[in-house]
Amino acid sequence: MLTVALPKGRIAEQTLEIFETIFGDEFKFESRKLILDMGAFRFLLVRNQDVPTYVAHQAADIGVVGLDVIEEQGLDIIRLLDLGIGKCKVAVGIREDDELDWSKPQMKVASKMVNITRNYFSKKAMGVEVIKLYGSIELAPLVGLADAIVDIVETGTTMKENGLKVAETIMESSAHLIANKHSFLAKKSEIMELYTQMEKVVRGS
Ligand code: PRP
Prior knowledge:
D-Maltodextrin-Binding Protein, domain 2; six-stranded mixed beta sheet; alpha/beta; ATP phosphoribosyltransferase; transferase; 11 strands; 32% helix; 2 domains
């Protein structure tokens, strides 16, 4: 049996649709249930940012999660396949009337993604004070909490409607199939069979 960690929301739904296409069955969580057993698979519904944790600790053999989360957490997992869903980018946002001033000695940047933020600005040799927030990141530059933000941009609507613009794109992201290293060795044929089937569906769409 393969245990699969899925991130609650649209990506879980779209991943289950891929399973439906492969197996011709209905893959659907009953309301409020966090475990779904279907044939050779057990699906776990977890918080987006927790998917790599479940997989790294082998509470799940495989999982589906955005590249941004994989990058931010830096856990020891295997990245298997780009599913081409949940596309977004991680970007630096500033006020529309502002410019990024790289000559400043230090900048205050608000973000949920503190590691991506630190790495990006240290590569640019810019001193940065990272202010960790848990949501509504777009608010920070509007009220003087930060000079800039690092956040997920999907349609760009949230930034636009809050008078912000993208100053730099840090990375493009999409949902990836990941695996635990030990599971990948112990259950290689099952995982590779699923990988091949998923790849076919993803390529066809
Ligand atoms: C993300 C992000 C932005 C928004 C961007 O939050 O933090 O606020 O989506 O999307 P847009 O470019 O289409 O407007 P999300 O809704 O994923 O919620 P979260 O803060 O709980 O991660």
